[in-house]
Structures are given as C-alpha cells and as structure tokens.
Amino acid sequence: MKNIRFIIVLFLFVTNTNSLLAQEGKVELYVEDLSKISEQKLLERQLLEKQLLTGKLELNGIKNFPLDNIYNINKNIKSLTIENSFELKNLSEEVKKFKSLEYISISKVSLTKFPIGFCDIDNLTFFSYDSNFTTIIPEEIGKLKNLKILYLSRMPLKKVSTAIATLGNLERLSIDGTASTYSMAGVIYKFDGIDYIPKEIGNLKSLKYLGLEKNNLEEIPKEIGLLNNLTVLALDYNNLKTLPMGIYNLQNLQNLLLSNNAFEYLPEDIGNLKSLKRLNLENNKLKFLPKSIENLKNLIRLNIKGNEISEAKIIELKKKLPNTEIIY
C-alpha cells in the first residue's frame, strides 16, 4: 500500500452491528469487542491495527470515546484528534492512561467540562481545545509542565485558571473567540466573552506568541510587559482604549495587532518598538498617529484603514516610512 497515511481517520459509532464497512473511502468501526469481529473481516481489522500502531489517531463523528478498544491495540499513541463529534458529551478521566500522548486536538465536540484526565499526561507538548461548550478551564491544567502550545478557542469561557501561568515552557498561548457568534451542528450560539486576563500571565517568560483576539477585554494587565521573548501580540476585536506602558518596551515584538478596538490615540512610546514589522490599527478611532511612529524603520506593513486620519497626514507618513506598505 503506497503512502500509508500517518494520520488515520477512524469513525466509531455505537451500534449493535459487529461488522466493518467501507464507506466513502474511510474505514468505519462499530464499537464492539474487537475479538468478536467476524473472520471474513479479519483482514480489514489487521490493516486498521497496522495503521493505529503508527501512533496517530483521528476520531471523527463519535458518540462515545472507545477508550478500551484503542488502548488494547496501542496504549502508546502519540497523537489524538477528536472532531465533529456533536453527540460526545464527556471524556472519562481514564484518558490519562495514554501516557505517551504528545499532541491532542479536540474540536467541535459537545464537552461542557474540560477533560481533566489529559492533564495527567506529562509528555504533552501540544493541546488545542477549540469550538466546544466548556465554560471553565480548571486548575488541573497547571500540571502540564512540558506544554509548549496551548490553544483555547471559540468557547463560552467564563473563567481561565491562573494555573496556566505556571506553564513555564509555554511558547504559544491563544485564548480567543470567547466573544463571538458561532454555528455548530446547525445551531447558532452567541458567546459573551471573557473580560479579564490574570496578571500572573506575566510569569510565562518563554512565551513568543500571545493571542487574545475576539474577547470582551477592556484592559490588559501591565504584567504582559514582562514577556521579553514575545514576538506576536494579537489583541484584535476587544474593547481596548489603551495598553499598559510596559508593552512598548518589548524589544522583540514584531507583530502588534490591535484592529477593531476603541483606541483614540497611541502614546509616543510606540516608537520604542524597534523590531516591529507589522502594526494593525484597522477600525479604531484614531485621528492621528504619534510622531515617534517614524522611528519604526523595520515596519513592513501598517494598516490604518477605518480610522479618521486625514489624507494629508497619510501622505506625510508615506514620506517618512518609504519602505512600509501603508493600508488606508
């Protein structure tokens, strides 16, 4: 078999049937004791086992998580994806048995409680938890000391645990889309959005990317100014009028994304961001830009569309920043 896929698509549904069917080019496994699969389907089962032993598994459209069936074939899977499973309501804490997991992605699943069993997996470095119905990220998430990437997106979050601030190896953190209108399984949901980010976020010294777009934030904790390794700060679609002054001292910051907020002015301190390459100020309430913005000689792209800056000021700015693409 040429080019055996390393990510397999395994559709599991609860049924009374003991057979494997080929449907739309994908293997469909009905949840039963694998030892009871009919002899004539043994070949298909062996192929499935061979694929599962690659260590990467994608579950799509499941009603229940077949923990025992997977564990009996390969308890050392390294990658697990669960998506488009609108009837899956919970995940047992026993998922912690998959100690070798390094990558987890759970998207478009009807989970109201965060699956804390995954928080006991020390090897985990990537965790994406997206488009679910969870309202609280619990303290247990602080156990994932080796985590480098954490995405918490498009959910009706009301509280984000300060324990995230103990994840010292975290390089990318995204908590976004908690204030948005979202369609899932044909139903439209409107999320109000979180309005608070704990000051402890300043402890994440390894952080390079911080995404807080599409929330309901009116202020950002000044401690973000302590994140000296930060290269991307994305704050689009909030209710921000100002930023704490410490942010303008982040010497490694290359992308500052502030579109769709309520900024009426920017301080002269923005000129301190010597490494800045992209600055997005689209759809704010700016009537002018500080003179110090002329100091941003590394700026590749400046978006000021949807503000009230006069054409005369834009022409002058173009002369001062001839190597910058200015969108207006």
UniProtKB/TrEMBL annotation:
SMART domains: LRR_BAC (SM00364), LRR_TYP (SM00369)
Keyword Repeat: yes
Top-level taxon in the UniProt lineage: Bacteria
Sequence ranges assigned to domain Disease resistance R13L4/SHOC-2-like LRR in this UniProt record: 199-260
A Pfam match: LRR_1
InterPro entries linked to this entry: Leu-rich_rpt, Leu-rich_rpt_typical-subtyp, LRR_dom_sf, LRR_R13L4/SHOC2-like
PROSITE patterns from the UniProt entry: LRR (PS51450)
PANTHER family: LEUCINE-RICH REPEAT-CONTAINING PROTEIN 57, LEUCINE-RICH REPEAT-CONTAINING PROTEIN 57-RELATED
Protein name: Leucine-rich repeat (LRR) protein
Highest classification ranks of the organism: Bacteria, Pseudomonadati, Bacteroidota, Flavobacteriia, Flavobacteriales
